[in-house]
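Per your request, structure below.
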């Protein structure tokens, strides 16, 4: 019933002594929650786009939170590569609109791969063709196929 729910994959959190799910650490909502806590503001007062703008303007808290966000994304992607060995891992959602997304994840993958001598396979990652609309289009397609 829950097969393929990669967001439930357990990974270490920022403390390094506890664990959390991949969704709780590497989703845009997790980034927003992290920055809201750092800035002592409500989560509904900020969004992912604003966090990236603040980081670009020099906000160190946002820069560090984004760096950690990319590290968690890369860690999960690395694990998926070695569990399933897919040809490509596609990323959708609003974050996939960022032109530098893949480059930043690849930088973090390089750091992970350099730590493990046995790691020879570099995950191939890309963004979904329909980016943040991919899930919705898939749901509409499934609905039309079922009921049309």
């Amino acid at each position: 019933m829950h097969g393929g729910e990669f967001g439930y994959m357990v990974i270490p959190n920022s403390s390094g002594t506890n664990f959390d799910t991949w969704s709780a650490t590497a989703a845009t909502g997790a980034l927003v929650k992290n920055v809201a806590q750092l800035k002592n503001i409500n989560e509904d007062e900020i969004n992912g786009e604003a966090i990236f703008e603040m980081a670009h303007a020099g906000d160190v808290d946002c820069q560090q939170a984004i760096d950690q966000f990319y590290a968690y994304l890369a860690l999960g992607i690395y694990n998926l590569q070695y569990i399933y060995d897919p040809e490509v891992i596609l990323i959708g959602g609003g974050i996939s609109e960022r032109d530098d997304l893949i480059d930043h994840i690849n930088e973090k993958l390089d750091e992970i791969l350099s730590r493990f001598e046995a790691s020879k396979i570099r995950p191939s990652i890309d963004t979904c063709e329909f980016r943040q609309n991919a899930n919705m289009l898939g749901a509409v397609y499934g609905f039309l196929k079922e009921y049309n």
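The CA atoms of residues 25 and 72 lie 6 Å apart.

Regards,
D.
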